[in-house]
Write a structure and sequence with these properties.
Blueprint (H helix, E strand, L loop, with lengths): L1 E5 L3 H12 L3 E5 L3 H8 L10 H10 L3 E4 L2 H7 L2 E4 L14 H12 L5 E5 L7 H12 L5 E2 L2 E2 L3 E5 L9 H6 L4 E4 L3 H11 L6 E4 L1 H32 L3 H9 L20 H14 L5 H25 L6 E5 L14 H11 L3 E5 L4 H7 L4 E2 L3 H5 L4 E4 L11 H7 L4 E4 L6 H6 L3 E3 L11
Parallel strand pairs: 1-2, 1-4, 2-3, 4-5, 5-8, 9-10, 11-12, 11-14, 12-13, 14-15, 15-16
Antiparallel strand pairs: 6-7
Helix pairs in contact: 1-3, 5-6, 9-11, 9-12, 11-12, 12-13
The structure holds nicotinamide-adenine-dinucleotide.
């Protein structure tokens, strides 16, 4: 199938490369000329494991191409995926400016039947607005009064991939959700995904749009639940890891997303929870549960800082080493990374912050500029009053902590992800603090 993807970011590029991998002919479009230039040369502008080799392979076989021209993409393809950003407005609404803009450009360049698919995360009822925008902006020759003479469909196909394992997730989806209003659209989407043989959920567009917001909001709720629980664990001397294990073995609950820490971040959960709260509000329902989810998440960062203040006493002029900056491991994405908020607060209090991340430093420099970025964890540890583990990169499991300890001014470790074994750390001579491990109170 001939497919165009508009927006070649974390979702668009992965989608494009993976669709090429399963046999389609794909043209990826992005308005960022530098990105397009890089991708044409076989380089991915983002860090995503496994993506670059596939990109190179399908560039070579010409199954994937890149352009800045929406016209070219639209005219070459039958199915057009919209995968542009949908950031938050100040009031929490999803900002659909990019989606509208792209819908307009698709319309003005249409010359035959097209299926336009929302891949971006959008609030319910966006599909209708996209369809209306297309109708309004079609070339005059396809409009006879109110009658439209060019056939097209709009569909919703939300994406559930996770950064860091996006290729794997795309190729092995738990389900593929499609929201369609015609058999033709359904058949085209079924044909596209047939090589993956996925479980398909076929519904109307509004339900498909809602499934995405509901899924992310539910996962965020699980995270805030365990984070709230971690507070109680600290107070009553319980270990949140064991509590999560005990809960998670119940199949009705499941262990995933029950990891207490410094809260969720990234480009999706915060904005999608915000947008879902706003959508609910607009539709006449106050989603207090999600407001609380968001509040707990914000509070979690404050609690982490409080713990540090409690144990370090004075933060001003202390040298603080941050291990891990990306909002999660295996990505270079710094959008809404909790590390950035924590670092800003510490800097505001007068701490000197050093940081190391295997992939996210270039992006981190744009959002937290006054940090001393180090080339490895040992340079980072030198002279530190404490270390903070904020992103659980696998390589941090294998650090030489004898060496790290010898380089630090004080061997104190605040583990924002409960990544390390506290007993091992204490045996190594570290003063160790995790989240909800029931240990913090004992040492108060
Ligand atoms: P991104 O910012 O990485 O990529 C968006 C791309 O669209 C950018 O490269 C931008 O240059 C391009 N773009 C914007 N306007 C354009 C235009 N008019 N013409 C051509 N290109 C244009 O964003 P992302 O993380 O890939 O997210 C895209 C959408 O997918 C969002 O709605 C997001 O919520 C959703 N989503 C993201 C993830 C994720 O893990 N990142 C997962 C599932 C869903």
């Amino acid at each position: 199938m001939k497919i165009a993807i508009i927006g070649s970011g974390y979702v668009g590029l992965v989608t494009g490369v993976c669709l090429a991998h399963i046999g389609h002919e794909v043209v990826c479009i992005d308005m960022d000329q530098d990105k397009v230039k890089k991708m044409r040369q076989g380089h991915t502008p983002i860090y995503e494991p496994g993506l670059e080799p596939l990109l190179k392979k399908y560039l070579k076989s010409k199954r994937i191409s890149f352009t800045t021209s929406i016209k070219e993409g639209v005219q070459k393809s039958t199915v057009i995926f919209i995968a542009v950003g949908t950031p938050s407005k100040k009031n929490g609404d999803a900002d659909l400016t990019y989606v509208e803009n792209v819908a307009r450009q698709i319309a003005t360049n249409m010359d035959s039947y097209k299926l336009i698919v929302e891949k971006s995360t959008v609030p319910a009822e966006t599909g209708q607005k996209v369809a209306r925008t297309i109708r309004l902006n079609l070339p005059k020759k396809y409009k006879q009064g109110k009658k439209i003479t060019l056939d097209f469909d709009v569909a919703s196909n939300p994406e559930f991939l996770r950064e860091g394992s996006a290729v794997e997730d795309f190729m092995n989806p738990d389900r593929v959700v499609i929201g369609v209003e015609s058999k033709k659209a359904e058949n085209l989407l079924r044909e596209i995904y047939a090589p993956l043989n996925p479980k398909m959920v076929v519904t109307n567009i509004n339900s498909a749009e809602l499934i995405k917001h509901a899924s992310n909001s539910f996962l965020a709720t699980k995270i805030s639940f365990i984070n709230a629980l971690s507070r109680i664990c600290d107070e009553v001397g319980a270990d949140v890891l064991k509590v999560a294990e005990g809960m998670g073995l119940d199949k009705r609950i499941g262990r995933s997303f029950l990891d207490a820490g410094i809260g969720y971040g990234g480009s999706c959960f915060p904005k999608d929870v915000d947008a879902f709260i706003r959508l609910s509000e607009e539709s006449g329902y106050k989603f207090h549960l999600l407001e609380e989810v968001r509040r707990i998440n914000e509070e979690q960062k404050q609690n982490f800082i409080k713990l540090m203040e409690d144990k370090l006493w004075i933060v001003k002029n202390k040298v603080i080493g941050v291990l891990g900056l990306a909002f999660k491991p295996n990505t270079d994405d710094m959008r809404n990374a909790p590390s950035a908020d924590i670092i800003r607060i510490l800097q505001h209090e007068g701490a000197k912050v050093k940081a190391y991340d295997p992939q996210a430093v270039d992006n981190a420099k744009k959002v937290i500029p006054h940090v001393s970025f180090c080339q490895d964890p040992y340079v980072l540890a030198k002279g530190c009053d404490c270390l903070l583990l904020l992103t659980e990169w696998e390589e941090f499991k294998h650090l030489d902590f004898h060496k790290i300890k010898s380089l630090m001014r004080h061997p104190m470790l605040f583990d924002g992800r409960n990544f390390y074994d506290h007993q091992k750390m204490e045996d190594l001579g570290f003063e160790y603090y995790g989240i909800g491990r029931g240990l913090n109170r004992e040492r108060a």
